[in-house]
Amino acid sequence: MTTFASGTTASSSGGDGLSRDALTVLQPGFPGTTAPDWLLRRLGEGLASVGLFGRNIASAEQLSALTAQLRAEREDVLVAIDEEGGDVTRLEVRTGSSFPGNNALGAVDDVELTRDVAAELGRRLAACGVNLNWAPSADVNSNPANPVIGVRSFGADTGLAARHTAAYVTGLQSAGVAACTKHFPGHGDTAVDSHHALPRIDAQGEVLGERELVPFRAAIAAGTRAVMSAHILVPALDPDRPATLSRRILTDLLRGELGYDGLIVTDGMEMRAIAGTYGIERGSVLAVAAGADAICVGGGLCDDETVRRLRDALVAAVHSGELPEERLADAAERVRALARWTASAGSAGQDAGDSEVGLRAARRALRITGAPDFTPLTEAPYVAALTPVANIAVGAETPWGVAAELSRLLPGTETGSFSGEDAGQHALAAAGGSRVVAVVRDEHRHPWMATALDTLLAARPDTIVVEMGLPQATPRGALHIATHGAARVCGRAAAEVVAGA
Prior knowledge:
The chain has 18 helices and 14 strands. It is of the alpha/beta class and 501 residues long. Helix 5 runs parallel beside helix 6 (158-174) and helix 16 runs parallel beside helix 17.
């Protein structure tokens, strides 16, 4: 029998307690930069967490006011955000991140630097009132064609991913912000984006144990306060249900074999891997029954009706016997336990930070290939951004590239965005007589991008190439700069090399 913090037990909680527990396990989103009335009302009824997205953030000052508004209604509310740094940023969604992402940190391979970057990111979140970060990604990027992980991973080496995952967890939580290590049991060996469909990993159990699970073991040893499940089917672990809905994976493996006792959070339930197969209500019931403690929803569905639907689905499942009341009560208590931890650890995030650590890390992450006699540019170039479709996790609203930073260093710099089979010809026409800086993102995954570079380099061999995705393609160009990510600081670091700053 599970005991509530208030001293009542699951079997005596009654209808109101059941409804409160159902609300407690939800982590919904909402529209706008202030809390709507329905959200404040739900906090009073038992909702214990909210999720923030780019649409909710205009500035650090506004975010602080928003979190203060939430805490005026419920002091111990968990305020969560998807702030990985690097390509995936919500705190700096309109400017690009001040921190390089995981792949850049993995390229440097300095665990103290990773810890320092995560600590500074945590301090900035804590200063704005955010106390739960859906990060880091512990996925081993073993499939270079992965369309959704890529530079969000520390790398393809298991040991490297493990030691940097642990360092990130330690750094983030030193600032009083709970880490949520994701995407369990590992999303790196997929060729499908779970935002669009249900990916499948066919690796054998031994491979999974020696590769995918190792960074999660490291995160658990480092004390990660939360783990996020992946919407992926792993037949070696459970041939029937995706990880988010699998008791074998969440309870038997994560809780049992790995000994994890913290909060288990689902990835976004409106992602097509779940919403398009089970539906969000059924999926949420199955997830909690399988061992999940918190239901993340709100990246797309972000209204009161969604909260009501999920609450009612959980309550109905308890009444029908499909979801044991003790399991729901246990999940709700784990949410409250994390809230207590953040309250006790919150003061850690107020220490003075290191505002330049992200830029220093981005500079160290650069890998430069090309002629040793390269002469930095002194005249404004033309920046041709060969732009792929952004994956949903990154979002299309976050700027990337080197044009803004080169414009600061070399006034008069012009830029254009190109894609498709004629991108190279269009870029050449737009550049005119200016020196070309071609910026790419995962050239190895986009044949049209490689063709465009062929065209540019054939006509203009002095073209400088900046790769801001995974540097899997053979370096080429008069100078090739691999940044290992597209954060704003990565663009600045590359621009400094181009301009000799």
